[in-house]
Amino acid sequence: MLILCFVPHFLFEAPCTGCRCCASGTDCITTNGVIECLDPCDTYTVLNDTWRSTENTDYSYIHCDAYISWSGWYRFYLGQTSAQIPEKCVAENRCGTSAPMWINGTHPVQLNEIVTRNVFGSWYGSCFYFASNTIQIKLCYGYYVYKLQQPSVCNLAYCADEQQHQLCSPV
Ligand SMILES: *[C@@H]1O[C@H](CO)[C@@H](O)[C@H](O)[C@H]1NC(C)=O
Ligand SMILES: *[C@@H]1O[C@H](CO)[C@@H](O)[C@H](O)[C@H]1NC(C)=O
What we know:
1 helix; signal; disulfide bond
C-alpha cells in the first residue's frame, strides 16, 4: 500500500495512525474510543434544539455553548428539516442566547468539500463583537455537517436557520 504523507517527520512514525493524514473529505473522528479517519457525512451528532432557531426571540432561558464539550461533527435540524448556521449577522438576544453565533462567509458548494469559516457573536449592537473561533463545514449529499468548537465565553450559542437551498438534488 502506498501512503503519501507530505510532512517528512510523519514518515518516521507509524504513518497515518492517529489520523495524521486522513484522505480529503474525511476527518479524524473518535467513535466508542476508537480514533480513525471517517467521513463526517456518515458520522455526526444530531443537534436539533428548537431554541437555536434564529426565529426564537424568547431569551427567558439563556443558553451557552461554552458549557458543551464539543467533539466531532454535527448536523443541525429544526424539527425534521435539515438546518444550517446562518451566513448573515443575527441580532442579539435571539437563538435562545445573548450573543448569537453566525458565520462570516458562505457554505461549501462542492460536494464533499470542507471549508473553514470564522464564527462571530453579535452583541452590544455589533455583529462582530465576539470573534469566537473557527469551524469547519462539509457539504454532504443534501445537508451540511459542522465541526464545532467551544465558543470563547458565555453567553454565546450557535444559531440555526432552515436550510437555504436544496443541496445536491439530482438534476
Ligand atoms: C431531537 O432528536 C431526538 C433523537 O432523535 C428526539 O428524541 C427529540 O425528540 C428531538 N427533539 C426535537 C426538538 O426535535
Ligand atoms: C468577513 O468576510 C469578508 C469576506 O470574506 C472579509 O473581507 C472580512 O474581513 C470578514 N470580516 C471579519 C471581521 O473577519
